[in-house]
Design a protein that fits this description.
The chain is of the alpha/beta class. Helices cover 38% and strands 21% of the residues.
Length: 305
Amino acid sequence: TNIESDHLDFFGSDEAYVQVFDDFADRLAAGGLLVVCLDDPGSRALAERVGERLAQRNVRVLGYGSGDLADAPVPVGARLHSWEPRDVGGLVQFQLADEAAPRTLRLSVPGRHMALNALGALLAAHAAGAEMGEVIQGLEGFGGVHRRFQFAGRENGVRVFDDYAHHPTEVRAVLGAAAELVQQEARDGARSRQGRVIVVFQPHLYSRTATFAQDFGAALSLADEVVVLDVYGAREKPLPGVNGALVAQSVTKPVHYQPDMSRVGRQVAGLALPGDVVITMGAGDVTMLGSQILDGLRARPQHGR
């Protein structure tokens, strides 16, 4: 789906990280298939690098994506024509290369990135010989996975979600999906005011925070209001000068650096208004804050708007 620099605390360099994907592709057995997202520069570059040598071993490479794919380095097996947000999900119009007409798929997970992910899964299933009607039915019944835009609850007109995103591109994709959700509701006249997106972000790993602090700030700025916690160190020891404030200072929207997690529930409950969407985000224990935020929302007086 995508290849971007990550886990450099283990791999040491961008080049070593990317090499893992090439090595994986080279392990595919004859008669196998590699499916790549052509919208992602890293995956597209992989297809360009390995396509010819895999073909020599009778391993196919098929791409999927959107827009102009005329110069694709490998055959295009499926194309995304359109994505239309609908509630927490949306409508996907796509077309397989060996079919004359487009098809429609209704997803129950939000975001254009999920439409592309579904297209990749669909293409792989089709190549494996699955019946397309059953594939579509299966995808339409997919309700998401744990900690990926997972609905935590609703209180006082505010919905709270939880997400595992801990890389700038993941943050950007999730907040883009959340923005689509509140914008769609405003267009449909579902609410008297357009809701905002409020994100509570916990950076994960000191090394990742040091490397991507500015990128995290830019991605988080897609939200309307941001609360940044301190770093969840996990397996790492603290690095001098690396904390949540490093991320917060790169955010261009209203931002609150909150190193005391015990205060977050009440703080966010005070920020949110009916129609807003709150997302707790990160790979650490930030996931526990959803219930505390809901408790705070439940305890406050009704806004009545």
